[in-house]
Design a protein that fits this description.
Elements lengths: L4 E9 H4 L9 E2 L3 E9 L2 E4 L2 E4 L4 E5 L4 E5 L2 E9 L5 H8 L3 E3 L3 H18 L6 H23 L12 H11 L6 H8 L3 H12 L3 H19 L4 H8 L4 H12 L3 H12 L2
Antiparallel strand pairs: 1-8, 2-7, 3-6, 3-8, 4-5, 4-7, 6-9
Helix pairs in contact: 2-4, 3-4, 6-7, 8-9, 8-11, 9-10
């Protein structure tokens, strides 16, 4: 399956590649240029508009745009050429030129995995692995750019930059009894305002996202450990074994025991 053509890819660090430069020369793009910033203290300039770079921000420059950069930064980058009639070309054309992404961990894992594969194996435009990762990227871009475009006017788009920080906090502390007030306090907003912004951007409530993280951790423990259901419930933040079983069956449509039995032979050696 040939989805598109990658004309360039890799990791770009201006401190290594251009240590004595303060900015890049202005140029016109001829393909889609996507950059995910790992670290940054500079600006991206697209068609004379400057955007503040920061970790967890993403650039999607379009063919025909004029762009340059003020250093310094480190990023993953992909240069993509898509056919005129590709549905994904239309998707990227509608993606904002620069925006704050929601789940930095998801993008980080995706770019890291894809870049490592490309640098070690080389680029094959018909590779199922490469095209699967690109489809995953297009999915995330579509989801985040929709949230960016559809955010109600009463919400300042700069104000929901706290969400990646909150997501990371929930991911690292899902075993605790996190309250809405605690999460809202981390964001610096009232619980009600925080709840509304989070649901608008993520499509689910903070409590639902917390439950997703607990269930995901439970799945990993079921597959990769011999811990009892009671131990897994405690480690993942469920109030009891019965609470774990009820929520697990509602979400995964099988019991934790059935899930463990179904997957243990696949993942264990």
């Amino acid at each position: 399956m040939r989805l598109c053509e990658l004309t360039n890819y890799g990791v770009f660090d201006t401190k290594i590649a251009r240590p004595d430069k303060k900015r890049s020369a202005s140029r016109n793009t001829d393909v889609f240029e996507i950059e995910y910033y790992i670290s940054a203290n500079g600006k991206a300039i697209i068609n004379d508009r400057a955007y503040e770079m920061a970790p967890g921000t993403l650039l999607c420059a379009k063919p025909g745009q004029k762009r340059s950069s003020i250093f310094h930064f480190r990023c993953y980058f992909l240069h993509i050429r898509l056919p005129e009639d590709s549905r994904y070309r239309a998707l990227l054309e509608q993606t904002p030129d620069f925006f704050q992404i929601v789940d930095g961990q998801a993008y980080g894992r995706l770019f890291e995995t894809l870049t490592e594969h490309l640098l070690s194996e080389g680029y094959d435009p018909d590779s199922d692995f490469v095209n699967a990762k690109l489809l995953e990227l297009f999915y995330y871009l579509n989801k985040d750019s929709q949230n960016n475009r559809n955010c109600p006017e009463q919400f300042d788009r700069n104000n929901y930059r706290f969400i990646p920080k909150v997501l990371e906090y929930i991911q690292q502390n899902h075993q605790k009894n996190l309250t809405l007030a605690e999460m809202a306090d981390l964001a610096g907003y009232s619980p009600n305002y925080f709840h509304n912004i989070f649901r608008t951007v993520m499509g689910i409530t903070p409590q639902e996202y917390l439950m997703q993280q607990r269930l995901q951790h439970a799945k990993l423990l079921l597959i990769h450990t011999d811990n009892t259901l009671s131990e897994i419930a405690y480690e993942c933040g469920f109030s009891s074994q019965s609470h774990l079983c009820a929520r697990f069956k509602r979400s995964v449509l099988c019991t934790p025991g059935e899930y463990r039995q179904r997957n243990m032979n696949r993942y264990r050696t």
